[in-house]
């Protein structure tokens, strides 16, 4: 199987316009295997060095570039993709099926975290539902939605000398005292609610000021560096890695180095001119951040091509 791995990237990347794999192959046994591989209770533990990537948002050619820059996923070169694989970019099907193909090939090489866009409500507005219906069918869309509800809500990465990092998509909570055990007890087999721990985990953002603030998104909260440090200390954590926000350089480091935002969709939606980035996390929990630029892609398929009318570009990122 090792000789076949590069085809997952190369064959999909050479399509240009939007042909797709046959539906029978997409919904057969491999999809069931992927679902079974993802049902363990989150946060999951990963006891090795790992590469953490942020939002990819259907930008398939930039995903392929990550693998070109850092190597294909393998047991020796594992990846964690921190949610928002789909929506906005118009190769969302290619992104999520590529990630699932690696996971099915070897679950040690690929780990996936649920983002706020792995939900039915977001997919109806921001393009994934329209894309799947266009390329496949309503049946396949329903299978994806079922799969999204099995995704872990976070990963706990154990390092050397009792150092630990938590990876979640959005951020922290509207109150102190939340323990990792509370996250393990969350029912994730649902459409995310508008409030509560699950919603905050997927939607919250850091702010520069201490304390809490209203979320600019209308969902989740804004939390300060003091909130981050208390949460990490209370849970014996060294580092929090999250995504969910575009950054000009592809990343931002806050809370005295204990909070990293990572965003892996460069030139977001072909408009923003930002870089992307990923994090190589070593066993000593020392992060090595690698920025990268956008690559060329076919121009006959524009971002938001499958989005609902009035969905907007950044209304609910």
What is the CATH top level name?
Alpha Beta
- Tell me the count of domains: 1
Strand content: 15-25%
Could you give me the name of the CATH homologous superfamily? Metallo-dependent phosphatases
Q: pLDDT below 50 for ≥5 consecutive residues: which ranges? A: 1-17, 25-42
SSE order: HHHEEHEHEHHHEEHHEEEHEEEEE
Radius of gyration: 18 Å
Q: Globular, elongated, flat, extended or rod-shaped: what is the shape?
A: globular
Average residue pLDDT: 86
What is the CATH topology? Answer: Purple Acid Phosphatase, chain A, domain 2
Largest sheet report: 6 strands, mixed
By DSSP (H or I, 4+ residues per run), the number of helices equals 11
What does this molecule look like?
The chain has 317 residues and is an alpha/beta fold. The chain has a single domain, classed as Purple Acid Phosphatase, chain A, domain 2 (4-Layer Sandwich). Helix content is 30%, strand content 17%. It contains 11 helices and 14 strands. The strands form 3 sheets. Strands 1-5-6-10-12-11 form a 6-stranded mixed beta sheet. Helix 1 runs antiparallel to helix 5 and helix 3 crosses helix 5. It starts with a helix and ends in a 25-residue tail after the last strand. Belongs to the PPP phosphatase family.
């Amino acid at each position: 199987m090792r000789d076949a791995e590069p085809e997952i990237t190369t064959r999909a990347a050479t399509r240009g316009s939007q042909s797709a794999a046959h539906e029978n192959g997409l919904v057969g046994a491999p999809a069931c295997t992927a679902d079974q591989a993802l049902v363990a209770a989150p946060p999951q533990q990963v006891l090795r060095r790992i590469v953490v990537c942020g939002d990819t948002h259907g930008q398939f050619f930039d995903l392929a570039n990550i693998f070109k820059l850092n190597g294909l996923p393998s047991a020796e070169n594992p990846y964690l993709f921190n949610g928002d694989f789909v929506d906005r970019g118009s190769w969302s099907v290619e992104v999520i099926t590529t990630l699932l193909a690696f996971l099915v090939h070897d679950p040690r090489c690929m780990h996936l975290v649920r983002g706020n866009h792995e939900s039915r409500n977001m997919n109806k507005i921001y393009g994934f539902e329209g894309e799947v219906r266009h390329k496949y069918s309503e049946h396949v869309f329903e299978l994806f939605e079922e799969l999204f509800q099995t995704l872990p809500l976070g990963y706990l990465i154990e390092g050397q000398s009792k150092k630990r990092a938590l990876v979640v998509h959005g951020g922290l909570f509207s109150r102190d005292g939340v323990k990792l055990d509370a996250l393990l007890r969350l029912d994730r087999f649902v459409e995310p609610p508008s409030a509560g721990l699950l919603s905050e985990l997927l939607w919250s953002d850091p702010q520069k000021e201490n304390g809490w603030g209203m979320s600019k998104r209308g969902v989740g909260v804004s939390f300060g560096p003091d909130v981050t440090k208390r949460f990490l200390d209370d849970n014996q954590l060294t580092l929090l890695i999250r995504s969910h926000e575009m950054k000009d350089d592809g990343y931002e480091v806050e809370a005295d180095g204990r909070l990293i935002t990572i965003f892996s969709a460069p030139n977001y939606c072909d408009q923003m001119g930002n870089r992307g980035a990923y994090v190589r996390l070593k066993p000593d929990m020392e992060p090595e951040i690698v920025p990268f630029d956008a690559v060329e892609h076919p121009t006959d398929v524009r971002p938001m091509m499958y989005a609902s009318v009035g969905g907007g570009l950044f209304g609910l990122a």
